[in-house]
Structures are given as structure tokens and as C-alpha cells.
């Protein structure tokens, strides 16, 4: 039976290397830890998400509800999303996109329920964020019915924390709020996310650490739990936000 509650989230930015893959890994970890199922779709020829998923499986840190598909065209992407919808077993479809423009990005936007752009507090990343926001605004002029477009959200990532942030970083936060559709929560700069990139989904890393006979390893689970709580807040904010 088709799942009418399935949610499609696509990470988009106007160039590669902007943190889209990391954001998708983080959101997937949150969804799966909440007991949902998630299909990750890699549309990037670089294959970062595909390699990460393979590492997660190898390390035993890929939960049952996770799946991965790699696609190379809009047609394949649409077919994959439609199949997940019709089969009914997928709660979230999370799409990692390449940093390119043109029809490919436009088509992905039309297939998603939410678009998210990660932005780091740097001048360079702000330029990319601005380009992405402008692309989305222009997209309203290119589509037949702009109301068909999903909401677009910006997520501030690698935030050093309120007490550790420099004056310039805090100024950039204010600028981001004025310039972008920023959600309320942020993703902080945490070692847990770097380890996630090496080991797999956050929830499974926590489970593995908690079951370790080594008390030092068990104590490390707390850091991943904090990251997972943060990831859950970000996912919930995305789902609740409006354009």
C-alpha cells in the first residue's frame, strides 16, 4: 500500500563540497533513531554518500530501516521515489545532490517536499548560500505553478557554539537570519559528526558503544547522544518550517 505520509527531503547547494552529504547523513541518523525508515538517494557522481553507506554496513552501523539507491538521471530519481512511495515501506527519502545547476536541480526541486541548504559561517559559504537562495527564487519564475514548489530551508552547520563563536561568526548568524530562510536549530561543530562520517549512523554507533565491555568506550556514547538529539531537533524544525 502506498505511503501518503512519505517525506522527500533534498539537500541542495550551487556547488559541491558544501556539506550536503554530511547533512543528509545527519538527518538520516535522526529519522532512523526515531524508528522511521529512510531511503538515501545519491545523485552525486562523486559517490560520497554511497561510499559512506558501504562503510556503515561494513562497520555494522547500518540499521534495518536504512536503504540506499544511486541514480544518474532525473528519470531514475523519479522512478526510485515513486517505487518507494508505492511499496509503502519508506517514511523518509533523503537525497544528496551534486553541486550543479540547470534542469537537474530544477527537477529535483519539483520532486521534493523540502529543500535544505547547509551553510557554514564563512564568507565563501555565504556566497554559495546566496546563490542557492537566488536559484530557488528564480525557479518560481520558471515553473508553471510556483505553489507546487516545496519550502526551502537553510541550516547553519559547524556552529562553534554561542560561547565559543567569534564576533564575526555571530555577525554572520545575524546576517544569515536576515538573508536566508534559516531554521531555528543549528548543527554544531562536533567530533561525533566526524566519527559518524567514518563509522556510520549515529544511533548504531551509540548502540555499539553502550554495549562495549570497555567502560571508557561506554562513556563516549554520551557525545553521540548529544549529536543525535541535535540532529533530531534539526529534522523536526525542517518538517515544521514553512516557506
Automatic annotation (TrEMBL):
Top-level taxonomic group: Bacteria
Alphabetical list of Gene3D superfamilies matching this protein: P-loop containing nucleotide triphosphate hydrolases
InterPro entries xref list: DNA_Partitioning_ATPase (IPR050678), P-loop_NTPase (IPR027417), VirC1 (IPR009744)
UniProt cross-references to Pfam families, sorted A to Z: VirC1
Stored PANTHER family: COBQ_COBB_MIND_PARA NUCLEOTIDE BINDING DOMAIN-CONTAINING PROTEIN, P-LOOP CONTAINING NUCLEOSIDE TRIPHOSPHATE HYDROLASE
The protein's name in its UniProt record: ParA family protein
Upper taxonomic lineage: Bacteria, Pseudomonadati, Pseudomonadota, Alphaproteobacteria, Rhodobacterales
Amino acid at each position: 500500500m502506498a505511503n501518503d505520509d512519505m517525506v522527500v527531503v533534498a539537500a541542495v547547494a550551487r556547488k559541491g563540497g558544501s556539506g550536503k552529504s554530511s547533512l543528509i547523513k545527519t538527518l538520516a541518523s535522526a529519522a532512523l533513531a526515531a524508528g522511521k525508515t529512510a531511503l538515501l538517494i545519491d545523485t552525486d557522481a562523486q559517490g560520497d554518500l554511497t561510499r559512506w553507506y558501504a562503510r556503515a554496513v561494513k562497520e555494522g552501523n547500518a540499521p534495518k530501516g536504512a536503504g540506499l539507491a544511486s541514480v544518474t538521471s532525473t528519470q531514475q530519481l523519479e522512478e526510485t521515489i515513486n517505487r518507494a512511495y508505492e511499496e509503502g515501506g519508506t517514511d523518509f527519502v533523503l537525497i544528496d545532490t551534486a553541486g550543479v545547476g540547470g534542469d537537474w536541480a530544477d527537477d529535483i526541486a519539483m520532486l521534493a517536499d523540502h529543500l535544505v541548504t547547509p551553510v557554514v559561517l564563512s564568507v565563501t559559504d555565504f556566497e554559495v548560500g546566496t546563490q542557492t537562495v537566488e536559484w530557488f527564487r528564480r525557479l518560481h519564475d520558471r515553473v508553471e505553478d510556483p505553489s507546487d514548489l516545496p519550502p526551502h530551508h537553510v541550516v547553519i552547520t559547524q556552529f562553534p557554539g554561542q560561547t565559543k563563536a567569534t564576533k564575526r561568526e555571530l555577525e554572520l548568524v545575524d546576517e544569515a537570519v536576515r538573508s536566508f530562510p534559516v531554521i531555528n536549530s543549528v548543527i554544531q561543530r562536533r567530533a561525533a559528526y566526524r566519527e559518524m562520517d567514518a563509522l556510520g549512523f549515529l544511533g548504531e554507533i551509540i548502540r555499539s558503544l553502550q554495549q562495549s565491555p570497555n567502560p571508557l568506550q561506554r562513556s563516549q556514547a554520551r557525545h553521540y547522544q548529544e549529536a543525535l538529539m541535535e540532529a533530531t531537533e534539526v529534522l523536526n524544525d525542517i518538517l515544521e518550517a514553512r516557506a
